[in-house]
Specification:
mainly alpha; homodimer; 3 strands; about 220 residues; about 5% strand; DNA-binding
Chain lengths: ~220, ~220
DNA sequence: ACCAATAATAACGTATCATTTTTCATAACC
DNA sequence: GGTTATGAAAAATGATACGTTATTATTGGT
């Protein structure tokens, strides 16, 4: 009987290390091209090298770092072209997620969406910009999970993290954050109202706008 | 089968182990629920446990095995529901790939497609069923790569492997293989002729048919 | 200034120890 | 007599330390 294998949920050192290093990359502590030396990390975290290596390999297969055999590990150096490619994929998959979210909408998810909408609206009125990042994360994951498709959730989360780590989105200056929030509200309202095509359309526009904002921020960055 | 281990020290051991174990899962040698014991594998391949573990963790992050801390690793037990979910994702992404393939079509890719079409046609006429599996693989990867989107290629390859490993497609008996080949030919012809919408439409139908064939084969399997 | 030889460094893989889980046998209880 | 508890032994994973090999940096010589 293989049943009770999947139940338990303990946390191992390598799991913590993985989360830790990934966070450092997502937060920009480790930047593209930085070398991640096993021994240094091991000393820094006061553990042996094995869990470090396991975490690094895991990060590699998700595209966050790049390992060159016999040389070492560096934080992935993602080109703008690749980021734009990821936006293209996101466009397809978030539209799919929106469609599925409408199809599979149940009462529990519905109330989650409504709660989220109100939260975002309150945040916008108070102009609590500090909460924008967390809220953005929360909205995305609510949308991703409400599609009720395990693999889709994993892929979208991965791509979303990827964008977070490597696309330095210049939100604050462009006022894109507010616009993005409002787009999200409309998307969520469409889902709650079960308007499939509207939800798909709004999602497509939303990603398109995000992509444009990214391209814009890249251009500005190059000029200086 | 495990003989050629000492030759070619060019790539690392963990890389070979990863490919080896993944192949065993894809070929059905290791089935869902099977335990993968580090020590057993290490003895079987005559190496130490470290490279085995690295390979296993890598397989985990791609969804082929499942590890439970302090307990061990088992080959993922994928439900029919999850397979169908993956078909849903494939539908979106292969349609996207078809669209991109048309948009980014260049002469080199074009001739590859034409060569592939002829190859498949010849194979169909001769009824060389043994080649079907390889050809299917070849066609898919030609389509995936011609979208010229690195991440999309990775995701599609992963999902394709996933289907291969866990959906036991009953091709031969249903005549689905021939039908699938013909669908592929039409898709590739549409791409070569730069008919975007036709390529998208045919791809969508193709995945839909594959999904139906899978569901059919599952039903039959349950009856016996 | 450039090339070769050597030393230092870091990744790769093995061996070993420690901890946890599982299994199996014995015993107690219903 | 059969089922469940308990505990010790075996087995498997988690982590560390160590040796080896390959790459990189440095030094010395031409």
């Amino acid at each position: 009987m293989v049943s009770n294998w999947t139940e338990d949920n303990l946390i191992s050192i390598r799991e913590r290390v993985y989360i830790h290093i990934k966070d450092l990359i997502l937060e920009g502590e480790f930047k593209a091209g930085d070398r991640l030396v096993e021994r240094e990390l091991a000393e820094r975290l006061n553990i042996s090298r094995t869990p470090i290596r396991e975490a690094l390999f895991r990060l590699e297969s998700q595209g966050f770092v790049k390992t060159v055999p016999r040389k070492g590990v560096i934080v992935a150096d993602i080109s703008e072209k690749e980021i734009i490619e990821v936006f293209t994929i996101l466009s397809s998959l978030e539209v799919l997620a929106a469609k599925l979210a409408v199809q599979k909408l149940d009462d529990e998810t519905k109330s989650k969406f409504i709660a989220c909408i109100n939260k975002v609206k309150a945040c916008l009125q108070d102009k609590r910009e500090s909460d924008y990042s967390d809220l953005h994360f929360e909205m995305n994951h609510l949308l991703y999970s409400s599609a009720k498709n395990t693999k889709l959730y994993e892929i979208l989360s991965g791509l979303s993290d990827y964008i977070k780590a490597f696309a330095k989105l210049g939100y604050k200056k462009t006022g894109r954050a507010e616009q993005s929030m409002e787009e999200h509200i409309k998307i969520m309202e469409a889902i709650v109202n079960q308007e499939t095509e509207m939800a798909e359309f709004l999602t497509k526009i939303h990603i398109e706008n995000s992509r444009k904002a990214y391209i814009e921020s890249v251009k500005k960055g190059e000029k200086k």
